[in-house]
């Protein structure tokens, strides 16, 4: 195969010294090498290659499971990110990992998701594209040590992409065979787990939620329906993403960042999409109507493991855990956060008519409390569930509770006396929505 054809097929790039220089910076004694991971979601397999006339240690990465364009790029390790544009690298990002170590990512589809501040390893930083000097969608990846290019490692193993075989290019200036291409599967799994969708109409068969931008991975999810469209919000590395069933589950960054823990809730209020997360101990609200600006509600001191939201007569009700008790705040009284007196570590909320109903996990047992009974706390009989994970739904008056026990989602219904049945859906957390009588679970 001619090099021209090879380039057309795989998408590669020319020398990019200008961008590399951005990542060089002042030399400092190299500290221990960070434990780098492949900069793609957990489980994805990518082809690593170079070519004669490239640069030693430069790696061009293409997806083995289909097109590369638009696939999510993750930080290879934690560090301070910077980003910009150059004619060679197109949209690029550089992460300074400290100790003299940097990683560089080039040809991103759009500007990186952020251009400053700290990113954890596994944080989404952008999408694969073909901007700058590139013949097709791929990620150009480099590692520098004290400003000089060096061998890239992934999950503790060397990439093997060292030489471009050309004496005329750097940095090691040897002539010889081009390092052969090889496939590497990502173990970049800390930023979140694969999200699966299962629904009651097909026996809870689990299908991975995956779209044109790659698999949706998350540390927590929240799901709503809007005009029959299923919309999934996921948090990963502090960032919140939106994926919709009518857009092929393409996972889009909302711009909301700083989310902590697993507290995530969402609401469709008359067509306005609202997302709630915990930032610095305060519940923040972002709305699709204001471009997802993430505003502090002033509700503070809350646990970052669980929050819930419901809408009733146009009023938004938020439930959070403060000091081990569920608190309620609503938009009609300026978000004053009042103690319901219901103890718990995890909370879910539904409405039945105009009654607000809370489901709370406390000490592995699930309790139900209703606003029209003064939040009297009644044990459902459900026990042995994970401490902070609970979801609930009202399906035509049937109250449904979803909890985690033994790594499986369990379903209990008010119609069967809250018998807690194993759905067979695995995961560590779940969210739920209903459309046309079908129950949809999103587990991760
Ligand atoms: Zn390249």
TrEMBL record:
* One Gene Ontology MF term: metalloendopeptidase activity
Q: Where is the M23ase beta-sheet core domain?
A: 68-148
Q: Which UniProt keywords apply?
A: Signal
SUPFAM superfamilies, sorted: Duplicated hybrid motif
Q: Give the protein's recorded name.
A: M23ase beta-sheet core domain-containing protein
Q: Does the entry feature the keyword Lipid metabolism, yes or no?
A: no
Task: Look up and give the organism this protein is from.
Answer: Catellatospora coxensis
The UniProt entry, under CDD domains, shows: M23_peptidase
User: What is the residue range of the signal peptide feature?
Assistant: 1-29
Q: Which InterPro entries match?
A: Cell_wall_metabolism_enzyme, Dup_hybrid_motif, M23ase_b-sheet_dom
Q: Does the keyword Signal apply?
A: yes
Sorted alphabetically, which PANTHER family does this protein's record hold?
L-ALA--D-GLU ENDOPEPTIDASE (PTHR21666:SF289), PEPTIDASE-RELATED (PTHR21666)
